[in-house]
Structures are given as C-alpha cells and as structure tokens.
Amino acid sequence: MSETTQETLYCIGCGAAIQTTDATAAGYTPASALRKALESDTRDLYCQRCFRLRHYNEIVPVALSDDDFRHLLATIREANALVVYVVDIFDLNGSIIPGLQRFVGDNPVLLVGNKEDVLPRQLRRTKLREWMNQQVRAQGIKPVDVALTSAKKGHAIDDLLALIEKYRRGRDVYVVGVTNVGKSTLINRIIANNTGLKDLITTSRFPGTTLDKIEIPLDDGHKMVDTPGIIHPEQMAHVLNGDDLKLVSPQKEIRPKGYQLGNGQTLFLGGVARLDIIDTIKPAGTVYVDNNLPLHRTRTENADNFYTKHVGELITPPTGDAVKNFPPLVRHEFKTTATSDVVFEGLGWVTVPADTRVAGWAPKGVDVLTRPAMINKK
C-alpha cells in the first residue's frame, strides 16, 4: 500500500487489495497510478492486471493458489446466506466444485445454469433442469431450485432475481462457481439491471479473473458477494492461449453435427481432442462443440500419423507457436451401457449409442468422462 495513505483500497474489478510493492502479486498498481487516483479523490480503482485485461485483453498471472481460493470460499460456511451456485451448462462436469457442501454448510443452494443460449433450442428447458438436478445431486449437491439464464445476453435475469429473492429471505447472497462459468458477467448484468452501471467487475475468457471477494450492497442493507472461482486444472482453458480459446468457447447456439462413426474410425475435434470408435453395433455419433471448431474423420489406423502431419494446420487449435508446446493427447477408454455423452471438459461432447466401446483423447491433464446423454432423442 502507498505510504501516502493508511486506507486499504480494493480493485473494483477483481476484489484484490491494492498494493504497489509486488508486481507479481494480486492487486498490484504502479505507485504513480495510485497517486493520480488519490489526487483525483476517486476510490474506483482497477489494479494493473484488471486494467490490462479490460483494455488490451492481456492476462497477467498472479501468485494465488487453489488453496488461497478455497480458503476464501470457506468463509461461506460461517455466513447466513443464500448460495447461488453458477455452472456453465455447456461444461457442466467441468463446473462441479468437489465438496461444495463443506463450503456452504447448512446454507441453501440455488443452482444457476449459465450460457443456456448456446444449447440447441429444440432441447426442452424443463428436461434440461431435471437433467442438471440429477447431475449435481449425484455429486452430493442438493439445490433448492434450478434456474437457467444467459448472463451475456440477459436472458431470464428478472426470473433469476425473483428466485434469489424467494430463497434468500432477507439474507446475504454469495455467488460461487469454478473459473470461467460467467459469475462476474452475471453479477454485472444484475448490477446493470438495477443501477445502470455496466461492466463494473472484470470479466474475460481467462480462468481466475476474480481474485478476492467483491461485495455489492443490496437495498435492504445486505450484500451480494462475488467469490473467486475455484480453479479446475482439468479444464481445456488451461492448455490454450487466448486466440485458440475463441475456437472452443461457444458464443452462439451450437449446431449439432451427425456422423456415421463405425468400428475403426476416428473423429478429430480440432487438434485438441479425438474420439476412436473401437466397437459398436450402431455406427452413429452427434457432436456438440463450437460451430467454428474444425472436425475431421479418418481411419483409426492412420490417426496418429494424421495428427502428427496436420496438427496446427488442417486441424486446429492449437495454432502458431502453441503447437510445439501443446501437451500430448492422452487416451481414456470407456464402454457405454446406455446412450451416453463422451465429454471433453471445456470443449464439448460426442453422444454415442449404447453398447459402444470408445477411446477419448485429450491433452494431458484434461479430463475425459462419460455421462448420461444430455440430449437423448429417444
């Protein structure tokens, strides 16, 4: 903190305490910028990291660990509050916070599925809510209700606010989620709807934008708190750069793509994942990924050579210099018992028939798993 003031100031973008001594730590602001802000008598400060992210889309790493984030979230257990648990519907499995109940204690949980606008319109939303409820309950999370919204487009924000008022019952509201699910975008939308202020909290595609709790006062004297996102290192976002992230993060409604995937065939999802069909009695597969992600089918016996020859060119991302540093693809084998999604966390999924043996490949450290199909046409 600057020698010219004893008051602790906080970045309104990420919540970190402003400091001028360590450029690698959260809240760093050059002393000259802090003096200028103090001289203008403003307390609406952005740290250098948020300033660069907002104006230049440039991410500056900071020395915060996953344990730091978990310690901050642990304070929710002691609070008397409604917990608004935001998940990315497109990456639900990558949005799960392990042991969430340990953080929230006896506080009620309202599950909010964000980015519902990227899912096909023909998927019935009532069915989607039921599916989401089943998925999180399987992880020990018991929401009092499930809401769907699109923070980016402002879909159903008023409906969400009505549910928050219904369940908070005059208490504080804590908004939690893993990185990149759109928590801060959602809170910005709520603030804009109520005050007219836009983009107050820093948001981006990069993981870990919010670094400390950000408190927003409510009309009744209570507060809404944006908490830092739990980092999931298994997400695809951690192995891609900013330009490549644009090719795997849907911004528009995805268009499912159907393939006749038979035995001995491989489907490449860009250069970041692949699916091998080892044994199936029904050659079929439906792909749910960003519309701009290139897809290529080949014989499994040729897949390794195809990848080595074409990664970074015909099959992208990765692109440019990122190719040489991209982690190797690791194989995960599964056998389905019912119509199932083969999920590549942070990328999307491929729905395959029952009784199919498959191998899903993803960068080392990125999870591949199977789950009951989100969109089952039967």
Automatic annotation (TrEMBL):
Coiled coil: none
InterPro entries, sorted: G_CP_dom (IPR030378), GTP-bd (IPR006073), GTP-bd_ribosome_bgen_YqeH (IPR019988), Mito_lipid_metab_GTPase (IPR050896), NOA1/YqeH-like_C (IPR048422), P-loop_NTPase (IPR027417)
A Gene Ontology molecular function term of the record: GTP binding
Xref: SUPFAM superfamilies: P-loop containing nucleoside triphosphate hydrolases
Record-annotated CP-type G domain positions: 66-233
Name of the featured protein: Ribosome biogenesis GTPase YqeH
Organism, scientific name: Lactiplantibacillus garii
Gene: yqeH
